[in-house]
Amino acid sequence: MLVVKNLKVNYGKIEAIKDVSFEVPDGKIVTLIGANGAGKTTTLRALSGLEKTSGGSIVLDGMDITNREAHKMVPLGISHVPEGRKIFPTLTVRENLELAGWTIKDKKLVRERIEEVFELFPRIKERASQLGGTLSGGEQQMLAVGRGIVTGGKILLLDEPSMGLAPVLVDEIFSQILAINKKGTTILLVEQNAAEALDIADFAYVLEVGYTTLHGPAKEIAKDPRVREAYLGV
């Protein structure tokens, strides 16, 4: 489905991404793990057109989409749930979800996807008329993921979905990510909680200072002594 080769991204003279390559097969969960500053978020932003690349290629279903404008990525099938949630605090939960489907002409489909979100996140359904800014951190994260579901697409990019959440909510978020995947959505997950990410992912890539340094089936990566010491604390 998604093939990234020798990706490079510069911020002025600073090389944020130096050489990152990975593949995301159709219907799978792939995780990118690494320390702060490894380039995980920048990689996702390049995939969704929010950052321009200075080298390499991004290919989706055989189509080169490298450096396409961000607003053209959604119709191509890429839905990005950014780090920090980025919900609209002055809109209600339902309005946030409705706005996520603004590019979809079939409004019945939008309504169906909103109901799908409510089934996945009953807590969000209970707060459908509540302003987004009044939700708890965990509820805002559920809403952010829900907007990605409403937007739809072939692949969902999730950037640090567990950041700042209580442990019980972290477990809930990861359970729902699995549920979303089982319904047929391909997922690329960026996550500092390496243990949880490796537990649910099919494949994993380790990013270090702008390079892809390790890759393979997630369960095998989790057993690698370097990964266990650096990211799993064992």
TrEMBL record:
The keyword Calcium does not apply. One of its GO terms (biological process) is L-amino acid transport. Signal peptide: none annotated. One of its GO terms (molecular function) is branched-chain amino acid transmembrane transporter activity. The keyword Metal-binding does not apply. CDD domains: ABC_TM1139_LivF_branched. InterPro entries: AAA+_ATPase, ABC_branched_ATPase_LivF/BraG, ABC_transporter-like_ATP-bd, ABC_transporter-like_CS, BCA_ABC_TP_C, BCAA_Transport_ATP-bd_LivF, P-loop_NTPase. Residues 2-234 form the ABC transporter domain. Pfam families: ABC_tran, BCA_ABC_TP_C. Keywords: Amino-acid transport, ATP-binding, Nucleotide-binding, Transport. Belongs to the ABC transporter superfamily. PANTHER family: HIGH-AFFINITY BRANCHED-CHAIN AMINO ACID TRANSPORT ATP-BINDING PROTEIN LIVF (PTHR43820:SF4). This is High-affinity branched-chain amino acid transport ATP-binding protein LivF. It comes from bioreactor metagenome. The lineage of its organism: unclassified sequences, metagenomes, ecological metagenomes.
